[in-house]
Amino acid sequence: MMFPDPAAVITSILAILGIILPGAAGLAWQSGRRRSWIEALSISFGLGMAIVALLAVSGRMAGVRFSPAALIAVEIISAVLLVLGIFRRRPRWRVTSFIALEILALLGVIALRFFQARDLALPAWVDSVHHTFLVRLFLEQGGIPADLLPWIPGPFYYHIGFHASAAVFSAFSGLTPDAAILVFGQLLNAAAAVSAHRLSMAIRPDRRRALLVMVLVGFFTQMPAFYLSWGRYTLLAGMVLLPLAMAEALEFAARAPRRSTLLRLAILTAGLLLTHYLAAILLAVFLTLTGVYVLLRRERRRRIIGLLVSAGSGTALALPWLIPMLRYSTVEVGFDVVASQAAADAAYFADYASYIWRLLGPLRNQIFLGAGLLAALAALFRRGPLRILAVWGLILGLQTLPWGLRFEPFRPDHLAIVLFLPAAVLAADGFIALADWIDRRRPVLRPRFFFAGAALALCAVGVWQTRDILSPRTVFADTDDRRAVLWAAANTPADAVFLINTEYWQNGLYRGSDGGWWLLPLANRRTLLPPMLYSFADRAYILKTNGLAEEVSRLEGCTVDFWRLVREQGVTHVYIKEGVGSLKPETFDSCRGVMEIFHTGKVWIFRIDSSFISGILPSTTEPVLTP
């Protein structure tokens, strides 16, 4: 994945500023302590994402659609407010060596994320298909779509925070939805490291610890970098907002109880509820622990009211979207007990414990998580915010075990991929604490230089081992696919219906096997198997779609079954990729009525001449045994 030209780089920078500006304008007018530039940047970005999501929900409720002119007006107002707020506060501009290190680290993380995504022509794996589809709908309809018609006969009730921000980024940058998701997704991945930095500063205002946290998350840990392989951009957006909301809660509970802190907490809570439900549940657990901490400290008990009001206000802001979501959702929420490994395999899938262990790997990451666990146990004996984080992290760790008390519908593997956050903050704190302890007792050893060198070495190892972090098995669409899909968008009728290769996915659903599945989100062309959002439709439609997908997965060329499916479903074109699925391009070489109209690399597109169907299939409903 490469930017096509310098102009695209500039427009992408301006586009990300378009998300940051509303948050920065709000932050500039709030009271509180002076913050480092990187803290201000992370808070502004998180507030901006939350504000974009809230504006999208407000527009949906009011029946207002956001045009490019309206977005530009919001940005102009935000820019004016930001400038006035900056001059009101009269900040002192001073560049120090530590600021230079932070800038270097941030630029390095961004560069690494784009390097890791360098081979992608389209976002990877299954989720990316419907993320791109939704961003396109957001752009076409100027906000949250009312439903998924005409492509899928069902309501829309997905979490919308990521898609709203990605749509704004796409609108400002001029990138197509798929390219916007790839670029914005890598910026989000870098932002997750910066948000972890902000959480560390809220726990202990020590820029050494915070910088180490940022470096660990950005360069060393397996997650969230590996999210790239899954296309888990919604969870990634949640992991940007979650540490920011936790930081605001800690600052109010353990330090100065300011109203501006509660306002930011409310906005970030609302944004998180609209962005990812697992991350929102994790915030609820953390706020509960923070509330217990406040109640146990007599001099701080009155602060519980502020926390409750702030969290309640944030939830109220998100309710206009959460209520219809809960009305349509068929997901069962509750508690369950998985008592053994056999029970875990039965509840999820075979060899589930080994799968969890692989998610916690590779070896360097398992050692890192072990260090985080030791730091968490040590932090239990220390007072203050670090103990809250340690308890929260241990709860996440326990939920990662394949057996025990489960909170449905979230599985242990969902928790395993977010452990990097508490582990990084706790391990960095223990790392620096050990260096300071040695320095006080044996200053001649100069432990700070040793630990700084060790940290750099760890990061070098992490960069080297994650340079090819993208899993090849999750990339089913490549440059050939993107070229073919874009050709189809320009050279096939708008009402074309494509037959594509399919295969079983999970939870009773099917997925596409190659880039043909991208025809709807990227080319606006119908496929027999739509994006995974077809699970939002009623049961009859899901069963019908699954039946078609299963039938297609068994097709082996120009057979009677093929022609019957073509006639019944109105198929006009076939998309085939060599080496993928049951349909092979060579099987259509001598097939009358099927004509090759495009070929690039390993991808073929065929057009079906419907006039041949009557000569191949009789008009009766009797079974036909020969072509």
Structure description:
The protein is α/β, with parallel strands linked by helices. The chain has 2 domains: 461 residues, no CATH class; 138 residues, 3-Layer(aba) Sandwich (Rossmann fold), CATH 3.40.50. The chain is built from 25 helices and 9 strands. The strands form 3 sheets. A 5-stranded mixed β-sheet has the order 6-3-7-9-8, covered by helices on one side. A two-stranded antiparallel ribbon has the order 1-2. Strands 4-5 form a two-stranded antiparallel sheet. Strand 8 and strand 9 form a beta hairpin. The relative contact order is 0.09.
Q: Can you give me a brief rundown of this structure?
A:
By secondary structure, this protein is an alpha/beta fold.
Would you spell out the secondary-structure blueprint of this structure?
Layout: H1 6-28, H2 37-62, H3 68-89, H4 97-116, H5 127-141, H6 161-173, H7 177-203, H8 207-220, H9 227-230, H10 233-254, H11 259-275, H12 277-296, H13 303-328, E1 334-338, H14 341-347, H15 352-360, H16 363-379, H17 385-400, E2 404-408, H18 412-416, H19 420-441, H20 447-466, H21 479-491, E3 497-500, E4 502-504, E5 510-512, H22 519-523, E6 526-527, H23 539-554, H24 560-569, E7 573-577, E8 594-600, E9 603-608, H25 613-616
Helix pairs in contact: 1-2, 1-3, 1-6, 2-6, 2-7, 2-11, 2-13, 4-7, 4-8, 5-6, 6-7, 7-8, 7-10, 7-19, 8-19, 8-20, 10-11, 10-12, 11-12, 11-13, 12-13, 12-17, 16-17, 16-19, 17-19
